[in-house]
Amino acid sequence: MKKSDRIAAEGLVLAKKDANSVLVFELNSETDxxxxxxxxxxxxxKIGELLLANDFVNLEDALLIQDEAGRSxxxxxxxxxxxxxxxxxxxxxxxxxxxxxQSVEVYTHSxxxxxxxxxLKGGNLEIAKDISMHVAALNPQYILKIEVPxxxxxxxxxxVEKKAFAEVKNFEKKPENVRVGxxxxxxxxxxxxxxxxxxxxxxxxxxxxEKYLAQNSATLEKVVRFEVGEGIQKxxxxxxxxxxxxxxxFQKK
Length: 253
Known about the structure:
Layout: E1 10-17, E2 21-29, H1 32-35, H2 38-53, H3 59-62, H4 73-84, E3 89-97, E4 102-108, E5 114-122, H5 125-138, H6 150-167, H7 176-191, E6 200-201, E7 204-208, H8 209-215, E8 218-227, H9 239-252
Antiparallel strand pairs: 1-2, 2-3, 4-5, 5-8, 6-7
């Protein structure tokens, strides 16, 4: 099989920022062994610097960015493939500019398998970092409750109503406003399994992400999470659990 036909499902992700822009991208190799190779790591850092320093409109455009020697990112990967012996690809990249009114922070897990960028309106860098680490650990499916499809919300509401009548003592006899409050609490608890703003903050389980942001005059504007190999053939390793374990160890200090 030619190198160009082989699957590159391992690799590294990296989140970077400067004073004006924030970036996250995924660089793939065929094996985890090569992803730990210093030549591959150097290539990733080089590509990150080029992507952050130059404007582009899509992935194809990004591959044309040239270094100081006139070599494009595409050419740099071809040269690395020839040297390292494995197919290397720039699979995806997200980049956006931000303003002084926004708090922007990045988090790349120590093993390079998960990277997150968080953009807040207001707040500060510490809050944005907390959200990035939370998203890295828990990988919520949705950022806001309003993003959940109506069909899914209706399904959850029906399930919760049945559960309330079956498990909450004298539920049907309670005043309507009390029943509404109980149902809302039960629905939000179920939604918190996959909606970021309703989840207990990973670094402080006593407060939800929504309340934590409100307490610090911050609102979520953008969260982007990359994990190596999402959607392509790859060995199943739970890196989110590893991030969560690191957060728990940090709390014990």
